[in-house]
Fold:
Amino acid sequence: MVADSTEIPVVSRSIPPRISAARIWVPILVLALFIPWLTNEYTQYVVNLMLVYILVTVGFNIAIGHLGQLAFCNVAFFGIGAYATAIPMAQAGLPFWLALLPCAVAGALAGVLASFPALRGIRALYLAIMTLAFGELMRWLYIHAEAVTMGSTGLPVPAASFFGLPLASAASKFYAFFALTVLIVLGASNLLRSRVGRAIIAINNDELVAASLGIHTARYIVLAFALSGTIVALAGGMFAVLIGRVVPESFNLIELIQHFAMVMVGGLGSLGGSILGAVILTAAPEAFRSLPGFEEVFLGGLLVCILLFLPRGLISLLARLLPGLEERYYLE
Structure:
């Protein structure tokens, strides 16, 4: 017998090359170093505020996005970090970089405290209400602990320095904040890619299944809350230095809604989405400054459109165009 030598044609399909995340983020970070050369003092202040809110949103996303707990204690962490930085600077004369140490410790302890309801099996709306009450309780303490916080008048923050370099201008604050933000976001990204991060996400997917696989769920819930509290508290410390005076009204319910909107607009469970949401919703009020009242309309309309058409946030849309933005721990 003669074997049939007819060849079956093979149709080759070209697969678009995947762009690595480094090729996307590294040029952005390099270009960001030149921002102070292109902005005035006020615009630079807004950019610095974006860096603060990037850390706020990253920390918040770890609790509600990656861990999957509806915990609204973020504004409490934010205020605790601001006061835990401002008080040592004002009363003990600590430099800014050294005051960040008690700030991080206070944020971590607040995160552990906020995790107790979740450890008791409280979930969903009940957990949201309890953690929301935690934030309101802290604001009450800021107002009435006048001997330490100066009450409603606010606590003035002395001139800051970062490893001996004075942070007297918006540009100098930018480079200090930029270095802190990049280091913290990279650290959070590496942690979420590690065994710890995979355990946290496994608890989000199904806590009972995670426990059956040998994951100590209580330990990782506490760890996730502590990590969230630490990152958001550090953002609060940056916020105190940026504003120059810490007042209780900076940590009210409206501030919490803004944090939540940043997470939802950027992308729930995505670090890239945290950055995107923080940048957009920090810049939006400046874009609509000449249109009073339109900011609320824009924010409400944007949230409705995101929830209806892009429930995974704007980062899911960008990830389709630039696959490198799709994180390995991103939840679909």
In short: Residues 8-16 have pLDDT under 50 and may be disordered. The longest strand covers residues 155-156.
